Automatic annotation (TrEMBL):
It is a multi-pass membrane protein. GO terms for cellular component: plasma membrane. Keywords: Cell membrane, Membrane, Symport, Transmembrane, Transmembrane helix, Transport. It comes from Macrococcus lamae. This is Sodium:alanine symporter family protein.
Length: 451
């Protein structure tokens, strides 16, 4: 197991981060910088048309699809992962996190466009799509496409087990530490609550996340913005520090210039990529169910995911940690995961730590709901509708098991399974990128209005 962990840590270091960064850069250039050239148009078509729904086919509304996708990406890592990136890569990592967020928009746009273009209806009459469908239907060589689709679906289906265990454990222990409630009891409550939502089907999941996401994100952001305002005198110097450290990170990290710069870029890119899941193939599973008149229009909502998840939530966490100066504490590197909670507690006392714990539970709960849905869709794709239901039961049990600390050895396989999801999806997106470009040109011929 130690060898597997070592290999996985190496793989998720520079190799996969480089693959994601170069793929994002290539698609940004190939799609003619769509996220920059049409940025304000995309905002108008998404946030600017929040209450409008296109006339096309679909199972849920575009904003419900966004809420579902965001539920999976907005998780505990938005709270504990960002300060870790700062402590490991220096303040400059925040700058590189934003850079990869903008580049990753092209990757997220491409996979969602494909997911919508190749979607179909299942036996319940619900629209389904995602990497398995564009691999199976989009590849000219159907045999290779089927192999890719099977690899992706099986890896994602299996990966959900350790993923929900880790998520259940994170939320339960956070509540136990703050409110002194047994983690096992919290895990059981989380599992039951998740089951009540996911067994209601895609419409119930979409309706629930549409209500939950604005509340959980809003609470966290309001408190975060208040901390930044309370330390507003430090904000200009912190912004200057972030930019300066991005290109001259030696002061913060030590070592040679080249090594320090590589470390800063690596941790910034890693946090941005891990947080918004661009290229992982999960987002198209949620967006494929959306009602839309063209794949490109719904793919804009994929870009808006990154705006909310990385540019707003992760950046808020970063600036809360930096302006409050908790990152300068003597034990900051060893206790990096607790820095956000420490900043909130310094500003608001015990109420602050309670807000972080409650936010953690909400973030994890929303993630659990949607990734269980993703896993069941993969089981359904591979083995039929009944298998999808069985998968849900297994995932629900795994949530509670994780809270009790059961199966910790399985947790080590989480990142390895993610690699088997990511690599075939990236290859498929690059192979099918001409189809994305064609659909993009078709849409932008006349800037179709949203009726």
């Amino acid at each position: 197991m130690d060898k597997i962990v070592s290999f996985t840590n190496w793989l998720w270091g520079y190799p996969l981060i480089t693959l994601l960064a170069l793929s994002s850069l290539y698609l940004t250039i190939y799609l003619r910088f769509i996220q920059f050239r049409h940025f304000f148009y995309i905002l108008k078509q998404t946030f600017g048309s929040f209450n409008k729904t296109p006339k096309g086919e679909g199972t849920i509304t575009p904003r419900q699809a966004l809420a579902s996708a965001l539920s999976a990406t907005v998780g505990a890592a938005n709270i504990v992962g960002v300060p870790t990136a700062i402590m490991m890569g220096g303040p400059g990592a925040v700058f590189w996190m934003m850079v990869i967020a903008f580049l990753g928009m092209a990757l997220k746009f491409a996979e969602n466009t494909l997911g919508l273009h190749y979607r179909e209806k299942n036996a319940r009459g619900e629209f389904v799509g995602g990497p398995t469908y564009y691999m199976k239907k989009g590849f000219k060589n159907k045999k290779i496409g089927s192999i890719f689709a099977f690899t992706f679906a099986f890896a994602l289906m299996v990966e959900i087990v350790p993923s929900v265990m880790v998520q259940g454990h994170s939320a339960s222990t956070a509540v136990e530490d703050t409110f002194n409630i047994n983690a096992g009891i919290i895990g059981i409550i989380l599992a039951i609550a998740t089951a009540l939502v996911v067994f209601g089907g895609v419409k119930r999941i979409a309706s629930f996340t549409e209500l939950l996401v604005p509340v959980m994100v809003g609470l966290y952001l309001i408190m975060g913005f208040l901390i930044i305002i309370m330390n507003i005198q430090h904000l200009p110097s912190v912004i200057a520090l972030v930019v300066e450290s991005a290109f001259n990170p030696q002061a913060a990290l030590g070592g040679t210039f080249g090594a320090a710069l590589a470390t800063s870029v690596r941790w910034g890119f890693a946090r941005g990529i891990y947080s918004n899941e661009a290229g992982l193939g999960t987002s198209p599973i949620a967006h494929a169910a959306a009602k839309t008149d063209h794949p490109v229009r719904q793919a804009f909502w994929g870009i808006s995911e990154i705006i909310v998840d990385t540019l707003i939530i992760c950046s808020t966490t970063a600036f809360v940690v930096l302006v409050s100066d908790v990152w300068k504490d003597s034990d900051a590197k060893e206790q990096s995961a607790a820095l956000t909670s420490r900043a909130f507690e310094d500003a608001f006392g015990s109420l602050g730590s309670m807000v972080v714990s409650i936010s953690m539970v909400f973030f994890v709960f929303s993630t659990l709901i949607v990734i269980v849905f993703y896993g069941s869709r993969m089981a359904e794709f591979l083995f039929g509708m009944t298998a999808g239901t069985i998968a849900k039961v297994i995932y629900i049990i795994s949530i509670a098991a994780g809270a009790f600390g059961i199966g910790t050895q399985l947790w080590n396989l989480l990142d390895l399974a993610l690699a088997f999801i990511l690599i075939p999806n990236i290859i498929a997106i690059l192979i099918l990128s001409p189809q994305v470009k064609q659909l993009m040109k078709e849409f932008f011929k006349d800037y179709r209005p949203l009726d």
